[in-house]
Fold this protein.
Amino acid sequence: MISERLGRDLRPYDIWYDGFKSRSSIPEDLLTSKTSALYPDPAAFRAGMPIMLTKLGWSAERANYIAEKIVVDPARGSGHAWGAGMKGAVSHLRTRVSDKGMDYKGYNIAVHEFGHNVEQTISLYDVDYFMLSGVPNTAFTEATAFLFQDRDLMLLGIKEENPEKEKLQTLDAAWSLMEIMGVSMVEMKVWKWLYENPQATPAQLKEQVIKIAVEVWNKYFAPVMGVSDSPLLAIYSHMINGPLYLQNYAYGQIIQFQIEDHLRGKDFSDEIDRMYSLGRLTPQQWMNQAVGVKISAQPILRALDEALK
Ligand SMILES: [Zn+2]
């Protein structure tokens, strides 16, 4: 389907095909002109947080309660969310804003980080017992970040009226899940190799990362993409500087899909408040209480089959 839409054979970098996203039909310059006018500096983003929360359904009072516990700092890298360790402390949203204001890419990442900060605030301040604060593991906070990130256009006041929207979202979710599972497998194999080879030099590690990336590519991606021997899955520096992190994105996307499914017809803010005040239960217990079923890739696979029909 992607090859048909592109009008050519697939190339390795099409693992990042984003043509199923509604934003792909809007020129990035237009989006950047909106975001840079709205958010010329980090302070403007902070001031905008309560407004974004009310757009997502929170009352003004509750929006202020959450937003006043989050501060925004300029970042040199892409972005980051640092949660508070105790009540009374604030969480930090780190985001990159150039002197021309926040571009769309920075805004999209900032909304992702904002999702983390909202989760961090609810799961610290609103759980029954401090010792239960947090979420079962990092995949759960990634899920909230993705839930927010996917609503970034709505938060900019852009309406998406494509009747195919739901189908396209499923295709997008499935395709990006495949990409992130690929790099996750590379990361796990790299760390297994590192533990088996603790004396490895940087040069040997580099060689091994590329070798593993090609192996994973040839086994899982080459049959789909029609191209062999691509080292592309070795791309994430994340896998070395944040050990064993990428799987959190893969599971985060699976959890996000199940939560989106559950949210249909329900109030977004009420449900986020309810789910993220459950606290640091075991993962399946959390999922059962949050959406009534265990963590599973079946819902996304079923929806994909349906969309492909
Ligand atoms: Zn994240």
Remarks:
- The longest strand covers residues 70-74.
